[in-house]
Design brief:
Blueprint lengths: L5 E9 L4 H13 L3 E7 L6 H5 L3 E6 L13 H23 L5 E6 L5 H11 L3 E6 L3 H9 L4 H14 L4 E4 L2 H11 L4 E2 L13 H10 L1 H5 L7 H7 L9 E4 L2 E4 L5 E6 L9 H19 L9 H4 L5 E6 L5 H11 L4 E6 L5 H8 L2 E4 L11 H8 L4 E4 L14 E4 L2 H12 L7 H16 L2 H8 L1 H12 L1
Parallel strand pairs: 1-2, 1-4, 2-3, 4-5, 5-6, 6-7, 10-11, 10-13, 11-12, 13-14, 14-15
Antiparallel strand pairs: 8-9
Helix pairs in contact: 1-18, 3-4, 5-6, 11-16, 15-17
Bound molecules: 2-acetamido-2-deoxy-beta-D-glucopyranose.
Length: 466
């Protein structure tokens, strides 16, 4: 059978919010010269590079949303119905709508019904079938249903049975590779998430134009008055919170707030209360230290700026966003402000590249995956404070490119320690920044893919065509 030079990337989710699968598609097109069909749900706009690439075609499926109106007591039936509809729709796309590929690449999770549809499609179309293990689906389900639920056990059984049938497997950490090998009978290669080329340090011009574009997002939420909104009202058009432009030359304002970014999909496995609590502690402690000087009547400009004002910008969409926004509105802090936003795929790397510190609240449902947002932050030379859990050490080296914390008070301590003397005299932050730059420049997606994924694709494709 002749090689077809085609690959099909399957994502049972919003493609725009699946960066790793987008990068896979780009690499299959660029580094193997494949024609790539992507079968996924719509929602957010994928990266421009994908939309513009002549060999990549995106097939958007319609989501069976109408099931959401069924009452909660029908939950198991709803799940089953949803799985059957998704299964049928996937088969239709994979077996009829797209030309036959040499290889299907599917993201896991979700495992149901994706793995079985792709398995069937790969048999029918005589194609190889590669699973990219981002996590375990059953552990995500266990977050909402509990470990001992029957559905969770069923899900695990299904995930293992069909996961094992793949022609080849990739996964995201050594810890996961070990688990797959020991308990699942799956031999997977590790393909670490690495930042693609558009994650890098932003130039001064890029920062200035980004902050000009973001002005309206920073003013929002309307009606809320905090340290940032007051500042914004006073500004002239050539000025942003962080930068100013005078006679064609741009500079960073010395009294700018420290910009701390975090991104999230607002799911229950990221506890944002930790960040909010830490912000309150930061605010109180800074206030207390300033008050400590009460006798000297006037606080000098110098002392005012020992600790900077903090602006947290939190990007992402998701279910719990409004709940936390409401909490943020009620905090009423004097040295800290919050903004939430959703950025265009092109602006997100610029924001990371313009920030001073990243915060990551990701804890893994399986304890075996790593937060991609931290990978992106390192790509932009941005150090992070990250929640500590089992395999995070594969990415964050405590004290070198970031710090690990386990509680809100630890995070507050780290913020105070790192930001003291900001922006000029914060040596600890600068040292971490260097570490982050080093990590970020040591590996890029294209070379990681070339070394670890390309040989696997070449191998599985040659097996089916022999
Ligand atoms: C989230 O963090 C807060 C603050 O540290 C804590 O009180 C709460 O119990 C945590 N919630 C969960 C679900 O872990």
């Amino acid at each position: 059978m002749a090689r077809r030079g085609r690959a099909c990337v399957v994502v049972l989710g919003d493609l725009g919010r699946s960066p790793r699968m987008q990068y896979h598609a780009l690499s299959l097109a660029r580094q193997m010269s494949f024609q790539v069909d992507i079968v996924a749900y719509g929602g957010s706009v994928p990266h421009e590079a994908l939309l513009k690439h002549p060999s990549i075609k995106i097939h958007t499926m319609v989501q069976p949303k109408f099931l959401q109106i069924l009452p909660r007591i029908f939950y198991p039936i709803t799940l089953l119905l949803k799985a059957i509809i998704q299964f049928t729709m996937l088969l239709w796309y994979l077996c009829v709508k797209i030309p036959a590929p040499d290889v299907f690449l599917v993201q896991n999770p979700p495992s149901v019904p994706t793995l079985v549809s792709v398995k069937w499609a790969s048999s029918l179309r005589r194609a190889a079938f590669v699973v990219d293990w981002h996590n375990f689906g059953y552990t995500l389900l266990a977050l909402s249903l509990g470990r001992n639920n029957l559905l969770v056990s069923l899900y695990r059984w299904f995930e293992k049975r069909y996961g094992k049938m793949a022609t080849g497997s990739l996964c995201v950490t050594k810890a996961m590779q070990h688990e797959l090998d020991q308990n699942w009978g799956v031999r997977a290669r590790v393909l670490y998430d690495q930042p693609p080329e558009f994650f890098r340090v932003a130039s001064l011009e890029e920062k200035h134009s980004l902050f000009c574009r973001l002005k309206k997002d920073l003013c929002h939420p309307v009606g809320v008055h905090d340290i940032i909104s007051g500042e914004l009202e006073k500004q002239n058009p050539h000025e942003t919170l962080f930068t100013a432009k005078i006679d064609d030359s741009i500079f960073l304002k010395p009294n700018r707030p420290a910009l701390v970014v975090s991104s999230t999909s607002w799911t229950p496995d990221e506890n944002f209360s930790i960040l909010l609590e830490a912000a309150v502690m930061y605010d109180r402690r800074v206030a207390a230290r300033l008050k400590g000087n009460d006798d000297s009547v006037e606080i000098s400009e110098e002392q005012q700026h020992i600790y900077p004002k903090l602006l947290f910008v939190i990007t992402g969409k998701g279910a719990e966003k409004e709940k936390y926004e409401e909490k943020m509105r009620r905090l009423n802090l004097k040295h800290v402000a919050f903004r939430t936003m959703w950025l265009a795929a092109e602006d997100y790397p610029l924001l990371l590249g313009s920030a001073d510190l990243g915060v990551c609240l990701h804890t893994s449902s399986s304890g075996l995956d790593l937060p991609m947002k931290v990978v992106d932050m390192f790509g932009c030379g941005l150090p992070v404070c990250s929640v500590s859990y089992s395999c995070i050490h594969e990415l964050v080296k405590d004290g070198k490119n970031g710090l690990l914390f386990s509680s809100s008070s630890e995070l507050a301590d780290q913020l105070l320690m790192l930001l003291k003397g900001f922006p000029e005299r914060c040596d600890a932050l600068m040292a971490l920044k260097e570490g982050a730059m080093e990590t970020g420049s040591s590996g890029r997606w294209a070379s990681e893919w070339e070394d670890n994924a390309k040989p696997l694709f070449a191998e599985v494709v040659s097996q089916i065509t022999d």
